[in-house]
Write a structure and sequence with these properties.
The complex is a heterodimer of chains A (about 270) and B (about 525).
Chain A: E1 12-21, E2 28-38, E3 43-47, H1 54-61, E4 69-74, H2 79-84, E5 88-91, H3 103-113, H4 120-129, H5 145-157, E6 163-167, H6 175-184, H7 186-190, E7 195-199, H8 203-209, E8 212-216, E9 223-228, H9 237-258, H10 260-266
Parallel strand pairs in A: 3-7, 3-8, 5-6, 6-7
Antiparallel strand pairs in A: 1-2, 1-4, 8-9
Helix pairs in contact in A: 3-4, 3-5, 4-5, 8-9, 9-10
Chain B: H1 3-29, H2 39-48, H3 50-84, H4 89-100, H5 104-115, H6 120-141, H7 147-155, H8 160-196, H9 203-212, H10 216-244, H11 264-289, H12 300-309, H13 313-351, H14 353-367, H15 371-382, H16 386-409, H17 414-422, H18 427-466, H19 469-479, H20 483-515
The chains are: A alpha/beta (about 270), B mainly alpha (about 525).
Chain lengths: ~270, ~525
């Protein structure tokens, strides 16, 4: 594989990044000032309670949402510069396929948007690698939820991005499909040493896929846990269960510190 | 063919036979009363005059086709202007509404003088009667895409142009097709009204001639042919839309009213003021730019003199006021009755689903029949008094309201209905608590769009038949070249329609702010 030989993706460096929504009286602080570095070529998972601001952080990294404070760099470049180079890709919670384009059309669109040559072989190859050979001409409406997510992943990877952002990409599919996608798809981006950041609700998914798990408190997001996942744990069920426990403990700690009970107690 | 399809076909064939039989019996019952002509008489007339009707139909179809093209192109251009200059949206939409509210029966004669002989007025009226119903859904359609599709474009550093081509245009296609479908019969209506006003050939000319001669068979035959062609055009564009587009918009034209920043009343008044100024300026500039003779192309200041400063202005105002009030007492009851009947029948159909299967296809088909084709029939049947006019207005509002309300009632979330079923609530309770609230946006959208339609219907009826009200005033002043009064009537009708539209929009706001404030958030 050509991408296996490419250098790892750049580090993502967030410096004092914060986000507030709305104007003065009705202001909502989604992300409290955060400084984090996501190592190049690694997969980092972000977990935290619903609405804690982790998706907002991901959107800021993607350059879709400007930070209210602080800065985000990818190596030496801004997210916008990476966008223009076609070096970024993102999978959304719903597959966000364009309904009037076939599977092939949706995947090919990413290459066009990223200003790359059409390369029908690369498109066909990527569709085959996500397990959808034979469905090239199907419309999104004719596919199951799991198949649509496979198309979304193929669309992300066909441009060979340096940064891959996943916003709960398997959140809308059933448990069994999710488990299968978790086994089949990650090797596709692990091979290319892409820098990955994934938002997920599933602690097990985070531990199974990521090299590092960052746990956030409820809104505004603060880091309450930063747990490395050693490679050795992948084949060791006991080590994995211990990590799941560790992440879960951090999650409930974050909830206790900032949750509704704590806020009530503070008043 | 599946068994189900065969069953459907058999049922439809039975329905058609039943209608023909009823029609025949009714015609026998009122034989010799100049009201109704039976299927045999109509068929005989068509067989004897097929060459004449064929020629007239070809002329009208051509005019309607050119108008359809021109009007829809204009709508697309207007939407592009709004897409490029989003700040202009509200004012462009307001001016588009004013132009749509110009009464066709009066613009027809003015255009006739302007163009001279030829198909100019017919094509222009056809264009005028289609552009608004394409403009509005297209406006909604351009914004009808989930946020993540726009994110996808930005993710690759792409700007407004790529987003427009890859997302907005395609997402808007179903809305465009829905607009074009409504436009197809509307173009036919516009062309026929254009032919009423001094054309030499076409279905409109035949229709007027048949009515004047009290030729009942001819009136019915022409109306039915025109109605059939309109329904065919409606069906053909619908079939094309199903082939081309990837989905159908849920509710047509159910645009939530604008979100008001600050005082809604003040904002409304401001918009009305700006619109008035722009319209007056456009009017004056258009007249001057083409150097049109003041004899028939009146300017705002001519009307000011005619209605305010000139000797006899008081009499002019009184005549205008008398005609307006005559029209108002016909249009308001007809409009309200049509809306109410449409909404009530929709609810009945939801409560009695098997009835819906029989009524809905008929209602959708009849909605596509332009009023000018059937108005002569209603006049024949109900006479030239108020009953006929009010019925025409009611029919004009009834079908769009019925179809919109049924679509709206079906928007009720399935899970909410299931939740109520778990508590064994009655169908009436479900209707009241889940389905009627879900119906309101579609109902109000239909109510707003029906205002200009009702005004068009009442003026056509007055003009063709009753000899009273603004429609008759416009017909008379056009034929006596009293252009001051004609233009004054045009202004009154357009302003009245816009006012009615604004009134319904205000009511819509008031209702939503009580029952569904989330609908008002932009």
């Amino acid at each position: 594989m050509a991408e296996a030989m490419s250098p790892p993706g750049p580090d993502i460096i967030c410096t004092e990044v914060a986000k507030t929504f709305g104007d003065a009286p009705a202001q909502v602080e989604a992300v409290a000032p955060l400084s984090l570095t996501f190592a190049g070529g690694q997969m980092t998972a972000l977990v935290g309670p619903s609405g804690c601001g982790k998706s907002t952080l991901l959107r800021m990294i993607a350059g879709l949402e400007p930070p209210s404070e602080g800065a985000i760099r990818m190596g030496d470049e801004s997210p916008q510069a990476m966008q223009r180079k076609g070096a970024l890709a993102m999978a959304f919670q719903d597959a966000s396929l364009l309904p009037w384009r076939s599977v092939q059309g949706n995947v090919a669109l990413a290459r066009k948007l990223a200003r790359q040559d059409a390369d029908p072989d690369a498109v066909a190859g990527m569709i085959a690698r996500v397990g959808l050979a034979g469905f090239e001409q199907a419309r999104p409406a004719e596919l199951s939820g799991g198949m649509r997510q496979r198309v979304a992943i193929a669309r992300c990877l066909v441009t060979q991005p340096r940064i891959l952002l996943l916003d709960e990409p398997f959140g809308a599919v059933d448990e069994l499909t999710r488990a299968r996608l978790n086994v089949e798809l990650p090797p596709l981006w692990q091979a290319s040493a892409t820098t990955c950041v994934m938002v997920t609700h599933s602690v097990r998914e985070a531990v199974a896929l990521a090299d590092r798990v960052i746990v956030f408190s409820s809104r505004p997001a603060r880091v309450v846990g930063d747990i490395a996942v050693p490679d050795a744990s992948r084949s060791d069920r006991v080590a994995q269960l211990a990590l799941v426990d560790q992440v879960s403990a951090a999650l409930s700690r974050g909830w206790d510190e900032t949750g509704p009970e704590a806020r009530q107690a503070a008043q | 063919m599946t068994a189900l399809a065969r069953h459907d076909l058999a049922r439809q064939a039975l329905g058609v036979l039943a209608v023909l039989l009823l029609w025949h019996l009714a015609a026998q019952a009122v034989l010799g009363s100049y009201m109704l002509s039976g299927p045999v008489a109509v068929a005989t007339y068509l067989a004897e005059h097929h060459a004449l009707i064929g020629r007239a139909l070809w002329v009208t179809v051509q005019n309607a086709g050119w108008g359809f093209l021109a009007g829809n192109l204009a709508a697309i251009l207007l939407v592009l202007v709004v897409a490029l200059l989003p700040r202009m949206r509200v004012i462009v939409a307001a001016i588009a509404l004013v132009v749509f509210c110009l009464p066709l029966v009066a613009t027809g004669p003015v255009l006739r003088v302007l163009y001279g002989p030829g198909p100019g007025p017919q094509i222009t009226l056809a264009a005028l009667s289609v552009y608004y119903t394409t403009f509005i859904p297209l406006l909604v359609g351009l914004r009808a895409a989930p946020a993540s599709w726009f994110d996808l474009m930005r993710l690759y550093g792409r700007g407004a142009w790529t987003t427009f081509v890859q997302v907005r245009l395609m997402a808007a296609l179903p809305y465009l097709m829905a607009g074009l479908q409504i436009a197809a019969p509307a173009a036919f209506l516009g062309a026929m009204v254009g032919e009423f006003t001094g054309a030499e050939r076409g279905m409109g000319v035949l229709s007027i001639r048949a009515m004047r001669a009290l030729d009942v068979d001819a009136t019915w035959a022409i109306a039915l042919v025109a109605a059939a062609v309109s329904m065919l055009a409606y069906g053909a564009v619908g079939a094309l839309a199903r082939r081309l587009s990837h989905g159908r918009p849920d509710i047509l034209m159910a645009t939530a009213p604008e979100r008001a920043r600050g005082n809604a009343m003040l904002r409304g008044a401001g918009l009305a003021g700006v619109t008035l100024l722009v319209v007056l300026a456009l009017w004056w500039v258009a007249m001057e730019a083409f150097d049109l003779s003041r004899f028939f192309a009146k300017r705002p200041d001519d009307l000011w003199r005619f209605l305010v400063t000139a000797p006899g202005a008081e009499g002019n105002r009184a005549a205008l006021w008398a005609a307006s009030s005559q029209t108002l007492v016909q249009v308001v009851p007809g409009y309200l009755a049509g809306l109410a009947l449409g909404a009530v029948l929709a609810m009945v159909l939801v409560l009695v689903p098997w009835l819906a299967g029989a009524v809905l296809p008929l209602a959708i088909a009849l909605r596509s029949v332009p009023i000018v084709t059937t108005a002569p029939l209603i006049v024949l049947a109900l006479g030239r008094g108020s009953a006929g006019t009010i019925t025409i207005v009611a029919v004009m509002t009834f079908f769009p309201a019925l179809v919109a309300c049924i679509q709206g009632l079906r928007q009720a979330p399935g899970q909410a209905l299931d939740m109520m079923r778990i508590y064994a609530t009655s169908p009436l309770m479900r209707l009241w608590h889940a389905q009627i609230p879900a119906m309101l946006p579609a109902f109000f959208a239909a109510a707003r769009m029906s205002v200009p339609a009702a005004v068009l219907a009442v003026t056509v009826a007055e003009w063709l038949a009753t000899g009273r009200g603004l429609g008759a005033l416009m017909a008379m002043t056009a034929s006596t070249s009293n252009y001051n009064m004609l233009w004054a009537a045009i202004v009154v009708v357009a302003a009245g329609s816009c006012l009615g539209y604004a009134l319904v929009a205000w009511l819509e706001r008031a209702v939503f702010s009580r029952v569904a404030p989330e609908q008002l958030r932009g």
